[in-house]
UniProtKB/TrEMBL annotation:
Family matches, as InterPro entries: Thiolase, Thiolase-like, Thiolase_C, Thiolase_CS, Thiolase_N
Superkingdom as given in the UniProt entry: Bacteria
Enzyme Commission number: 2.3.1.9
GO molecular function annotations of the record: acetyl-CoA C-acetyltransferase activity
Class of the enzyme per the UniProt entry, highest EC level: transferase
Name assigned to this protein: Acetyl-CoA acetyltransferase
The keyword Ion transport is assigned to this record: no
Provenance organism: Sphingobium quisquiliarum P25
Catalytic-site annotation from UniProt: 89, 340, 370
Family, similarity comment: Belongs to the thiolase-like superfamily. Thiolase family.
PANTHER family: ACETYL-COA C-ACYLTRANSFERASE (PTHR43365:SF1), BLR7806 PROTEIN (PTHR43365)
Keyword Zinc-finger: no
Keywords carried by this UniProt record: Acyltransferase, Transferase
Amino acid sequence: MPEAYIIDAVRAPIGRKKGSLAHVHPADLAAFPIAELIRRTGVDANLVDDVVWGCNDTIGGQAGDIGRTAWLVAGLPEHVPGVTIDRQCGSSQQSVHFAAQGVMSGTQDIVVAGGSQAMNRIPISSAMTVGPQFGFNDGPFRGSKGWDARYGDEEVDQIRSAEMIADKWNISREAMEEFSLASHLRAQAAWDNGWFDNEVAAFEGLERDETIRPASTLEGMASLKPVREGGKITAGVASQNCDGAAALLIAGERAVKEYGLKPRARIHHLSVRAANPVWMLTGPIPATQHALKKAGMTVDDIDLFECNEAFASIPMAWMQELGVPHEKVNVQGGGIALGHPIGATGARIMTTLLNALERTGGRYGLQTMCEGGGQANVTIIERL
């Protein structure tokens, strides 16, 4: 089977809630890393076969197929199409999968994959709550006879899931706060050491991620009120709402040879699995087990891991179940420090993983993330 290669990857700095990117139109946010990717690689934009873009809550400025709109806003050729993908939090990781599958099939040669989310302008779950505006008191998990017949009236809520996972895997609030503090300190250290310099391009006057809180303390986190009464999950152990965008150039063997492209990594494995949608956030565990089995690999074969920090309990349960040491996971911080701009996070994580492998000299990197509906994508890349 033909190979799929990552030629380059770039992202915008992440803007915090009510931060430096809050004023930016979603299409302009999405267009930025696409334009920067074409500029950095020097690839003739006329050769791009498609733009596969991840984005959730595609209403307002994110509606109308933002993958297509972003390409046009970037000032690039009109004949290149675009499509927008919604696999919840894994949308842009799935975009990379679809792009890789396109070039591996031989039907495409060069594809831009990535994602964006303007969470300041369009808050999380906006698309799920528009029903009442049109006189319908429903949503994805209520009002459906089929859903009720299968799952009853059990509450489907990510905070509840994070709490359930913390309880099932015996993860204390204190342990989650220690994990969260490590995320901030790792992200700050990465910036201080210049480890993000190659992956981040300044945008709208913002040069660095503004979500990182290096002054956080365990004492400060301990004072935060739980989101749910009597629970363990607080804002301190959760990812942040923010604005972000990232893009990767994926190419097949034919394009690499014909146009003299220099790949930075090879897509070694890609897959997606799902688990119980009420538990919702446990998907990375069976998905990673499935991916390693399919790839004929073990945890020990992987040099670095990225498991999205939607909530601290998610990667902590995943590490516990898979036997992955924390020193190999999210080594430059994760969503708790860097934020979780939903549609962009998969591409952001892959961009960070690629650069971290190059920095450390590692060969294989694995990324996974929890996604709505109990799903989880897994990608294994090989640094070249």
